[in-house]
Amino acid sequence: MAERRHFEEGGAGYARHRPTYPPVLAGALAALTAGRGQALDVGCGNGQLTVLLAAEFDRVTGTDISADQIANAEPRPNIDYRVEPAEASALTDGSVDLIVAAQAAHWFDLPRFYAEVRRLAAPGAALALVSYGVPELAGPAAERFRRFYWGDIHPFWPEGRAHVEQGYASLDFPFAELSIPALVIERDWSFSALAGYVSTWSAVKAAAKAGQGEIAETTMTEIAALWGDPGTEYRISWPITGRFARLD
Questions:
Q1: Measured between alpha carbons, how far is residue 13 from residues 3, 5, 78, 223 in Å?
Q2: I need a labelling partner for 183 at 20 to 30 A (CA). Which of 29, 48, 168, 193 fits?
Q3: Closest CA to 188 of 199, 197, 177, 180
Q4: Other CB atoms within 10 Å distance of the CB of residue 246
Q5: Domains of the chain (ranges plus CATH)?
Q6: What is the pLDDT of residues 202-227, one digit of tens each?
Q7: How many CA atoms lie within 13 A of 198 on its CB side?
Protein backbone atom coordinates (compact mmCIF):
# COMPACT_ATOMS: atom_id res chain seq x y z
CA MET A 1 0.00 0.00 0.00
CA ALA A 2 2.99 2.33 0.38
CA GLU A 3 2.95 3.24 -3.31
CA ARG A 4 -0.53 4.69 -3.00
CA ARG A 5 0.77 7.48 -0.74
CA HIS A 6 2.15 9.20 -3.85
CA PHE A 7 -1.33 10.33 -4.80
CA GLU A 8 -2.93 11.16 -1.46
CA GLU A 9 -1.69 14.74 -1.54
CA GLY A 10 -1.34 17.33 -4.26
CA GLY A 11 -4.93 17.31 -5.46
CA ALA A 12 -4.74 20.99 -6.43
CA GLY A 13 -1.60 20.35 -8.47
CA TYR A 14 -3.20 17.41 -10.22
CA ALA A 15 -6.29 19.44 -11.07
CA ARG A 16 -4.16 22.28 -12.45
CA HIS A 17 -1.46 20.38 -14.37
CA ARG A 18 -2.58 16.88 -15.34
CA PRO A 19 -3.93 16.20 -18.85
CA THR A 20 -7.67 15.68 -19.12
CA TYR A 21 -9.40 12.92 -21.06
CA PRO A 22 -11.26 13.65 -24.30
CA PRO A 23 -15.06 13.56 -24.00
CA VAL A 24 -15.16 10.87 -26.70
CA LEU A 25 -13.65 8.45 -24.16
CA ALA A 26 -16.70 8.70 -21.92
CA GLY A 27 -18.92 8.02 -24.91
CA ALA A 28 -16.88 4.98 -25.91
CA LEU A 29 -17.10 3.56 -22.39
CA ALA A 30 -20.83 4.21 -22.14
CA ALA A 31 -21.30 2.35 -25.43
CA LEU A 32 -20.02 -0.82 -23.74
CA THR A 33 -22.92 -0.90 -21.28
CA ALA A 34 -26.50 -2.07 -21.46
CA GLY A 35 -27.75 0.78 -19.23
CA ARG A 36 -26.94 4.40 -18.48
CA GLY A 37 -28.27 4.66 -14.92
CA GLN A 38 -25.20 4.59 -12.67
CA ALA A 39 -21.46 4.82 -13.27
CA LEU A 40 -18.74 4.38 -10.67
CA ASP A 41 -15.34 6.02 -11.19
CA VAL A 42 -12.96 4.29 -8.77
CA GLY A 43 -9.72 6.04 -7.86
CA CYS A 44 -11.22 9.13 -9.47
CA GLY A 45 -8.59 11.60 -8.24
CA ASN A 46 -9.83 15.12 -8.93
CA GLY A 47 -12.64 13.85 -11.16
CA GLN A 48 -11.19 14.41 -14.64
CA LEU A 49 -13.03 11.44 -16.11
CA THR A 50 -15.88 11.55 -13.60
CA VAL A 51 -17.22 14.84 -15.00
CA LEU A 52 -17.20 13.43 -18.54
CA LEU A 53 -19.14 10.36 -17.42
CA ALA A 54 -21.74 12.69 -15.88
CA ALA A 55 -22.79 13.65 -19.42
CA GLU A 56 -23.41 9.99 -20.30
CA PHE A 57 -25.03 8.55 -17.14
CA ASP A 58 -27.93 9.61 -14.93
CA ARG A 59 -25.78 9.33 -11.80
CA VAL A 60 -22.04 9.04 -11.25
CA THR A 61 -20.16 8.21 -8.08
CA GLY A 62 -16.48 9.13 -7.87
CA THR A 63 -14.40 7.53 -5.13
CA ASP A 64 -10.80 7.91 -4.03
CA ILE A 65 -8.79 7.10 -0.91
CA SER A 66 -7.38 10.65 -0.93
CA ALA A 67 -9.52 13.26 0.79
CA ASP A 68 -7.29 15.94 -0.77
CA GLN A 69 -8.00 14.69 -4.27
CA ILE A 70 -11.75 14.56 -3.59
CA ALA A 71 -11.63 18.09 -2.13
CA ASN A 72 -10.30 19.32 -5.48
CA ALA A 73 -12.79 17.39 -7.63
CA GLU A 74 -15.04 19.35 -9.96
CA PRO A 75 -18.69 19.17 -8.85
CA ARG A 76 -21.68 18.31 -11.01
CA PRO A 77 -25.33 18.01 -9.93
CA ASN A 78 -25.41 14.28 -10.71
CA ILE A 79 -22.00 13.38 -9.22
CA ASP A 80 -21.49 12.10 -5.68
CA TYR A 81 -17.84 12.15 -4.57
CA ARG A 82 -16.79 9.92 -1.67
CA VAL A 83 -13.57 9.05 0.14
CA GLU A 84 -13.60 5.26 -0.21
CA PRO A 85 -11.17 2.49 -1.13
CA ALA A 86 -11.54 0.81 -4.50
CA GLU A 87 -12.11 -2.53 -2.84
CA ALA A 88 -15.13 -1.49 -0.71
CA SER A 89 -17.94 0.65 -2.13
CA ALA A 90 -21.04 1.83 -0.29
CA LEU A 91 -23.13 1.30 -3.44
CA THR A 92 -25.65 -1.54 -3.39
CA ASP A 93 -25.44 -4.93 -5.07
CA GLY A 94 -26.22 -4.98 -8.79
CA SER A 95 -26.63 -1.21 -9.05
CA VAL A 96 -23.82 -0.07 -11.35
CA ASP A 97 -23.82 -0.04 -15.18
CA LEU A 98 -20.19 1.04 -15.64
CA ILE A 99 -17.27 0.57 -13.29
CA VAL A 100 -14.18 2.43 -14.44
CA ALA A 101 -10.75 3.02 -12.96
CA ALA A 102 -8.60 5.56 -14.81
CA GLN A 103 -4.85 5.56 -14.23
CA ALA A 104 -5.47 3.84 -10.90
CA ALA A 105 -6.06 0.08 -11.18
CA HIS A 106 -2.37 -0.80 -10.87
CA TRP A 107 -2.54 0.34 -7.23
CA PHE A 108 -5.55 -1.80 -6.29
CA ASP A 109 -5.76 -5.10 -4.48
CA LEU A 110 -7.07 -6.63 -7.69
CA PRO A 111 -8.66 -9.85 -6.34
CA ARG A 112 -10.65 -7.82 -3.81
CA PHE A 113 -11.47 -5.15 -6.38
CA TYR A 114 -12.70 -7.70 -8.91
CA ALA A 115 -14.89 -9.32 -6.24
CA GLU A 116 -16.38 -5.89 -5.58
CA VAL A 117 -16.89 -5.32 -9.32
CA ARG A 118 -18.90 -8.54 -9.56
CA ARG A 119 -21.00 -7.54 -6.55
CA LEU A 120 -21.79 -4.09 -7.92
CA ALA A 121 -22.41 -4.98 -11.56
CA ALA A 122 -25.93 -4.61 -12.92
CA PRO A 123 -27.00 -6.90 -15.78
CA GLY A 124 -25.05 -5.89 -18.87
CA ALA A 125 -22.59 -3.76 -16.90
CA ALA A 126 -19.09 -3.02 -18.18
CA LEU A 127 -15.70 -2.76 -16.53
CA ALA A 128 -13.00 -0.42 -17.88
CA LEU A 129 -9.44 -0.14 -16.59
CA VAL A 130 -8.19 2.94 -18.44
CA SER A 131 -4.63 4.17 -18.67
CA TYR A 132 -2.89 6.91 -20.57
CA GLY A 133 0.60 5.87 -21.53
CA VAL A 134 4.03 7.44 -21.67
CA PRO A 135 3.91 11.04 -22.95
CA GLU A 136 5.55 11.97 -26.24
CA LEU A 137 6.65 15.56 -26.80
CA ALA A 138 7.05 17.15 -30.22
CA GLY A 139 9.48 19.92 -31.05
CA PRO A 140 13.17 20.62 -30.38
CA ALA A 141 13.14 19.25 -26.81
CA ALA A 142 11.52 15.93 -27.76
CA GLU A 143 14.62 13.74 -27.48
CA ARG A 144 15.78 15.33 -24.22
CA PHE A 145 12.32 14.82 -22.72
CA ARG A 146 12.33 11.18 -23.83
CA ARG A 147 15.72 10.59 -22.21
CA PHE A 148 14.51 12.27 -19.03
CA TYR A 149 11.56 9.90 -18.75
CA TRP A 150 13.28 6.64 -19.71
CA GLY A 151 16.70 7.47 -18.28
CA ASP A 152 17.26 10.17 -15.68
CA ILE A 153 14.04 9.91 -13.68
CA HIS A 154 12.93 6.39 -14.55
CA PRO A 155 14.56 4.64 -11.54
CA PHE A 156 12.39 6.73 -9.23
CA TRP A 157 9.02 5.61 -10.61
CA PRO A 158 7.13 3.31 -8.23
CA GLU A 159 6.95 -0.34 -9.24
CA GLY A 160 3.37 -0.16 -10.47
CA ARG A 161 4.33 2.34 -13.16
CA ALA A 162 5.46 -0.54 -15.38
CA HIS A 163 1.80 -1.50 -15.85
CA VAL A 164 1.07 1.96 -17.28
CA GLU A 165 4.07 1.74 -19.61
CA GLN A 166 2.76 -1.62 -20.86
CA GLY A 167 -0.77 -0.34 -21.41
CA TYR A 168 -2.02 -2.69 -18.66
CA ALA A 169 -1.22 -5.64 -20.92
CA SER A 170 0.34 -7.62 -18.05
CA LEU A 171 -2.34 -6.75 -15.50
CA ASP A 172 -4.44 -9.70 -14.32
CA PHE A 173 -7.84 -9.38 -15.99
CA PRO A 174 -10.07 -12.46 -15.65
CA PHE A 175 -12.83 -11.33 -17.98
CA ALA A 176 -13.79 -11.80 -21.64
CA GLU A 177 -12.36 -8.70 -23.25
CA LEU A 178 -13.84 -6.02 -25.48
CA SER A 179 -12.13 -3.15 -27.27
CA ILE A 180 -12.81 0.53 -27.82
CA PRO A 181 -11.67 2.74 -30.72
CA ALA A 182 -8.06 3.95 -30.63
CA LEU A 183 -7.93 7.23 -28.70
CA VAL A 184 -5.23 9.68 -27.68
CA ILE A 185 -4.93 12.69 -25.40
CA GLU A 186 -3.32 15.63 -27.21
CA ARG A 187 -2.42 19.04 -25.82
CA ASP A 188 -0.45 22.01 -27.14
CA TRP A 189 1.56 23.23 -24.18
CA SER A 190 3.91 26.07 -23.35
CA PHE A 191 7.08 25.32 -21.40
CA SER A 192 5.43 26.32 -18.10
CA ALA A 193 2.54 23.93 -18.72
CA LEU A 194 4.98 21.07 -19.30
CA ALA A 195 7.00 22.00 -16.21
CA GLY A 196 3.84 22.04 -14.09
CA TYR A 197 2.89 18.60 -15.34
CA VAL A 198 6.34 17.16 -14.66
CA SER A 199 6.21 18.56 -11.12
CA THR A 200 3.24 16.26 -10.38
CA TRP A 201 5.12 13.08 -11.33
CA SER A 202 5.56 10.69 -8.42
CA ALA A 203 9.05 9.93 -9.71
CA VAL A 204 10.05 13.60 -9.45
CA LYS A 205 8.68 13.75 -5.92
CA ALA A 206 10.50 10.54 -5.00
CA ALA A 207 13.79 11.88 -6.39
CA ALA A 208 13.42 15.07 -4.36
CA LYS A 209 12.66 13.06 -1.23
CA ALA A 210 15.83 11.05 -1.86
CA GLY A 211 17.86 14.26 -2.01
CA GLN A 212 18.20 14.17 -5.80
CA GLY A 213 15.84 16.92 -6.80
CA GLU A 214 18.53 18.35 -9.06
CA ILE A 215 17.79 15.59 -11.58
CA ALA A 216 14.50 17.20 -12.56
CA GLU A 217 15.76 20.75 -12.07
CA THR A 218 18.77 20.25 -14.35
CA THR A 219 16.72 18.50 -17.01
CA MET A 220 14.02 21.15 -17.10
CA THR A 221 16.70 23.84 -17.44
CA GLU A 222 18.11 21.97 -20.43
CA ILE A 223 14.65 21.52 -21.93
CA ALA A 224 13.96 25.24 -21.45
CA ALA A 225 17.11 26.08 -23.42
CA LEU A 226 16.05 23.79 -26.26
CA TRP A 227 12.47 25.09 -26.17
CA GLY A 228 13.30 28.66 -27.16
CA ASP A 229 10.50 31.13 -26.54
CA PRO A 230 8.79 29.68 -23.42
CA GLY A 231 5.42 30.81 -24.73
CA THR A 232 5.73 28.68 -27.86
CA GLU A 233 3.43 25.67 -27.69
CA TYR A 234 4.42 22.17 -28.73
CA ARG A 235 2.20 19.10 -29.00
CA ILE A 236 2.36 16.50 -26.24
CA SER A 237 0.38 13.28 -26.58
CA TRP A 238 -0.52 10.28 -24.46
CA PRO A 239 -2.00 7.09 -25.98
CA ILE A 240 -5.13 5.88 -24.20
CA THR A 241 -4.97 2.17 -23.49
CA GLY A 242 -6.73 -0.22 -21.14
CA ARG A 243 -8.66 -3.40 -20.54
CA PHE A 244 -12.41 -3.55 -21.14
CA ALA A 245 -15.09 -6.16 -20.51
CA ARG A 246 -18.86 -6.68 -20.43
CA LEU A 247 -19.93 -8.29 -17.16
CA ASP A 248 -22.83 -10.46 -18.38
A1: 18, 15, 25, 21
A2: 193
A3: 197
A4: 16
A5: 2-246 (3.40.50.150)
A6: 999 999 999 999 999 999 999 999 99
A7: 28
